[in-house]
Amino acid sequence: MQTHVRYLSHRLLRGVLLVAGGASLVLGVLFLGLYRDQLIHERAEVSMQLNRMLQVTWENAMLKRDVEGLRDIVAKLGGLSGIRDVVILSPAGEVRFASDPEKIGRQLAEIAQATSLGSPVTRFETYSSGGEVLRSINPVPNRAACTPCHGPVETMPINGVLVVDYDAAPIRDSAWRSAILLMLAGTAVIALTLLTLWFLLRRHVIAPLAGLDAATRALAAGDFTVRAQAQDNDEIGRAVLSFNSMALQLSNQLSRSEAQQQFLQTLLDGLPDGVRLIRVADKQVVLANHTFCQQVGQSAQNILKRPCFEPGYGRTEPCVPTLVVCPLAELKEPGDNLKASHYLKRPDGSVFHAEIHAVLVELDDEQGRERYIVESLRDLGRISQISHEQRLSELGLLAAGIAHEIHNPLGSVRLGVQGLVRELHAGHITHGQIVDYMELIDQEIDKCIAVTRRMLLLSRPPISSLQLVVVNEALADTLKLLAFDAHTHGITQRLELPDQPLRLLTDEADIRMIFLNLIQNAHHAMTEGGTLIARLFAADGHAVIEISDSGAGIPTDILARIFDPFFSRRADGVTGTGLGLTIVKNFVERMGGTVSVDSTMGHGTQFRVRLPLAETALESKR
Fold first, then answer.
1. Is residue 451 a part of any domain in this protein?
2. Considering the domain boundaries, does residue 202 fall inside one?
3. Which tens digits make up the pLDDT trace of 412-448?
4. Backbone phi, then psi, for 266, in 5-degree steps?
5. Are residues 490 and 594 part of one domain?
6. What is the number of structural domains in the chain?
7. Does 369 fall in a domain?
8. Residues 6 or more apart whose Cβ sits within 8 Å of residue 73
9. Strand 530-539 vs strand 491-496: parallel, antiparallel, or unpaired?
10. 372 has which bridge partners?
């Protein structure tokens, strides 16, 4: 549907023309009437003055009894241009003198009665022969000199009535012509005024408002670079400047908002766990990070603005709360959280087991306060795979040391066997010498078995049941496994153990993996050699393990991040997996212990692990 655009300039022009035209018409009519009346009044005044002159002539003629002279004067006046008729009436209305002799003797009482109060009268009337005349009726008052003929003044206040009829057409035509000319002149002045007003309105009002309107529509369409042009420093000019300032602020605010959104998305995409934000009102996913998209095997376009039960769950209807732990159904108030396990599906039909952490939050958005569910999904199968791969990676790094540890005993075994065979062939060997050779071979085989046992303890997957582990042996065995690596890099390893063995109730593979990661981490920090001290002692029912090195140290700005997943800043410049210290922290916390670090740049680093002794762990379970 197309909307009809109404322009302010058109409305103003129509309004100004309508008002100005109406005002011009009304003023013209009023001016014309007033001017015409004024002109007629002036002509009436002239006629009255003429009548008074005629009246004086009449009175003089009457006093002199010059009737013929008066008749002659009346006849001559009637013949003047512009005068239609002149008559003199008696007080009773009888025509005594007239410019038209045929009217003498007629009765015009109604004319005489018009001056019954003795006042002159001037008015327009229709002439008897057609046309309009301006009739001037002037009563002649009785005077003392006239009383002998006309009687006393008290009874005869007037001696007669002088009536002069002027042709009204020239008077009216003159009045109309003058009025029309004046009206045309006024119209021209008004038109010039309107044109000037229109030019000023268009220059200072319409054009700036049109520019401001175009800029406003462009801004509403999403063009935040648009700016209006200010022409004058008036109200409209200041409004344009205010608009430009508002547009600049909106542009800056939008840029900041986009930068913040991009920052948030980048931050979420950097998390190893899948994260999505669900709006409670309509169950739609409004935010999802890259890891979640990878977990469910779909793009962000197929996840955002879709119901939460579709991507990853493959459902067309909401989940049944009685069959699955649904955060939207379980969480009621902001701050409530839960932990649950779900099985999610990918488009290829594969299923993975996920651990879900969800929390209900309340945020401000365009519609006001809205409730959202923040979900964090962790692929349990992926975590198990990473943990196992980390173990295999660390074991691979031990290959050189293990080969050295096994090579030496095997070399001794080989020398012993060769010597035994040689002596047997020569027949010079005794029974006691055979026993000595076999004991030597047996000792060297024990050394090989000890190395392989240490390897097996590190490489086997974790077991579900806990066992008593002697920390002294586990720490000593790990140092022995890394002895060749330490010798190769010029590192001196020192072990400080208590007199009594310290036992933990845990998984032996986990505790050995903790020691392996910490000691290898110390080796990486000493690129030019140094000293590693592994110290074990008991304190407050806990076994305390300290791994100290004399390496480069850890910068303060990254010290708090060394336990983050996939964060790696090795001093030797080699890119690591970034999972070693993360696994250490997870294993230690799972055992109910703590791990801390103290580092000084240029002087080395010390990791301290506190784990509850077996006796303490058993006491806490009782």
1. no
2. no
3. 667 667 666 767 777 777 777 677 667 767 766 776 6
4. -65, -40
5. yes
6. 3
7. yes
8. 54, 57, 58, 61
9. parallel
10. 279, 361
Maximal C-alpha separation, the chain: 211
* 95-98 β-sheet, strand order: 95-98, 83-89, 158-167, 132-141, 121-126
Question: What's the CA gap between 485 and 87, in Å, rounded?
Answer: 154
Do 473 and 610 fall within a single domain?
A: yes
Q: 582 lies in a domain?
A: yes
Long-range contacts from 68-73, C-beta under 8 angstroms, 24+ separation = 70/97, 71/97
Three-class secondary structure of residue 302 per DSSP: helix
Residue 73 in tokens: 């004067």
Only one residue has tokens 């268009």, namely 202
Spatial distance between the Cα atoms of 562 and 523, rounded to a whole number of angstroms: 16
CB 20 within 8 A of CB 133: no
**CATH number of the domain that residue 344 is part of:** 3.30.450.20
Asked whether residue 370 falls in the same domain as residue 464, the answer is: no
SS in 3 state form for 479-536?
HHHCHHHHHHCCEEEEEECCCCCCEEEECHHHHHHHHHHHHHHHHHHCCCCEEEEEEE
Task: Say which residue, 481 or 328, is predicted with more confidence.
Answer: 328
DSSP 169: H
CB 137 within 8 A of CB 161: yes
Q: State which residues form the domain around 109.
A: 9-174
The two three-digit tokens of residue 172, written as one number: 């009216």
> What is the per-residue pLDDT across 564-608, written as a single tens digit (0 to 9) for each?
765 566 555 555 555 678 778 888 888 889 999 999 888 899 999
CA angle, residues 414, 419, 423, in degrees to nearest 5: 150
**pLDDT confidence band for 97 (50 / 70 / 90):** confident
Q: Which of 143, 174, 205 is the last residue of a domain?
A: 174
Q: How far apart are CA 545 and CA 519, in angstroms?
A: 11
pLDDT digits (tens, 9 = 90+) for 188-216: 877 787 788 778 777 777 788 888 888 88
Using the 8-state DSSP alphabet, how is residue 202 labeled? I
DSSP letters spanning 66-102: -HHHHHHHHHHHHTSTTEEEEEEE-TTSBEEEESSGG
Q: DSSP letter at 323?
A: T
pTM of the predicted model as reported, rounded to 2 decimal places: 0.37
Asked whether the beta carbons of 230 and 241 are under 8 A apart, the reply is: yes
CB 537 within 8 A of CB 471: no
Q: What angle do CA 459, 460, 464 make, to 5 degrees?
A: 140
CA dihedral sign of residues 501, 507, 513, 518: negative
